[in-house]
Structure formats: structure tokens, C-alpha cells
Amino acid sequence: MKSESITLSAYIDLLQSRGCYYFEREQVSQAVDRGETAFELALSRLVKKGRVARVRGDFFIIIPLEYRAIGALPASWFIDPFMHFMKVDYYVGLLSAAEQYGATHQQVMTFQVMSNKAIRPIRVGEVTIDFFYRKVIPSKFLRSVKTETGKMQVASPEILVFDLLKYIEASGQIHNVATVLYELQENLSIDALLEFIKTNGIGNVYVQRLGYLMEYLKLDVDAEPLNVWLSQKKLDYRPLVMGSTTPIIEKNKRWHILVNEVVETDL
């Protein structure tokens, strides 16, 4: 593909015509082979025109005309190659993952990604990517989802429900979580939930909260196996919502939950 006569703009068009909407600076610089100064000037012109945009470092995206107004591609189009560029394990999580399972009632304004390295938020045009740290990425419980340009790794429902409870602020608080849980119920398997709990050291408090919500919402998923699992543990009473100033409404003995919020869904 290398040619001394090809311009950077033409090379970008060529990449897009082949369904590739991203590139690394060094890769394209070598292919165009126009000299460092000429290349930087050409790249700067394309950035100013909104034809390409820098995501971070030397990773760029190619922006077709239909996305020029927002100054970026949808994050799902480039998140997988970008995370490989960063050499970081990841998965799309929280409300962004919930959307992949049809839980779209609670839309998120940012694209939410879990990674095993702390990464600062990224804003490209009108697209924002928020990163949340997870020490171990449980690859067995990830799902590969097709995107417009390839694929991306997405949390399974088992990872998702516990992440929603752990990262409650990013999930939109307990009412949002309850709404998503209700919409996710057809995708939940109690056997898969138990396997995830047993193999990933999920804290008892998150299992307690999940079990309580499953029964409170009357989901079409039997929560009894979770209760059996918890019966083998020494449990403390834990609040349903950390930091809530609402007085305790109920002391739920079955799940050892101090109910300090009347949960309502938006359905």
C-alpha cells in the first residue's frame, strides 16, 4: 500500500473505503512517506477540517461526513482497537453494556468502559468515554459484540448486575439500577450468577443487595439460590443505599439489608 505519491488525505480515504475508521500515527506516516514536517502539516489540516480526530496519543479516528457535526465517531466504532493500542484489558460496562441487552430505558450520556488500568476520561468532539478501574478483567464472562467496524468486548449480564451495584453513582443511583435490572431479567441466569460469584470473589454485600432487589422487583428469576449461598456466610446488616440520609424503613432479615430507600423504577 505504500506509495511515495499518495497524499495523506487520499490514504485516509483509502482506509475508510476499506472499512477502517482508525489509524496510528506511525503506521500512516510510514505509508505516506512524505517527510516529518510535511506529514505533520497535512495531519494538522485534516484535524482542523474535522476529517480526523486525535483520541489520545498517536491514535486517531477517521470521521465520515455524517458524523462531522459531532466531531467524532460513536465510541463503539473504535473502542476495541483503541484499547489494544493502549495495551489494556477492558470491557464495555455499566449502562453502556445494558444498552446492548435492550435495557435502553435509562440512557447514559457517556460511553462507560471498565479497564484494568486507570485511564483519564476521553472527550472527542461530543463523544465522552468514562473509564472505571477493575483490577481483574474476568475474560470468561465477557461477550464479543459486533459493531459497525468490527467488535467490542461487553460485560455479560452476570458482571453487569454487580458492577451496577458497585459503581452506583455511575449507574444513576438505586432507582436507575432497579429499572435496568427489571429490563435485564430475561438475560439473567441464576446458575451463571452463582458461578460468577464463586469464581470472582464478589463481596457479600453486593449479593445481599442483588437478592433483595430481585425479590422486591419480583423478577422472573429465582433468587433463592443466592440466599442459600449467603446462608453459609457470616453476614452483617448492610444499608441498601450507602450514604442515604433517609431513615431505615425496614430491617430485611432474609437478605440482611437495612432498607433505607423506597425503590421505584421508571417503567
Characterization of the model:
- The chain is of the alpha+beta class.
- The chain has 2 domains: 8-67, Arc Repressor Mutant, subunit A; 75-259, no CATH class.
- The chain is 38% helix and 18% strand.
- The chain contains 10 helices and 12 strands.
- It has helices at residues 8-17, 25-32, 36-49, 79-86, 94-100, 157-166, 173-184, 190-200, 204-216, 224-231, and strands spanning 22-24, 52-56, 59-62, 90-92, 111-115, 122-124, 127-133, 142-146, 151-155, 238-239, 250-252, 257-259.
- The strands form 4 sheets. A 4-stranded mixed beta sheet has the order 4-5-7-6. Strands 1-3-2 form a 3-stranded antiparallel beta sheet.
- Strand 2 and strand 3 form a beta hairpin.
- Helix 5 runs antiparallel to helix 6.
- The radius of gyration is 23 Å and the shape is elongated.
- The termini are far apart.
- 33% of the residues are buried.
Summarize the structure.
The protein is of the alpha+beta class. It is 38% helix and 18% strand. The strands form 4 sheets. It has a 4-stranded mixed β-sheet with strand order 4-5-7-6.
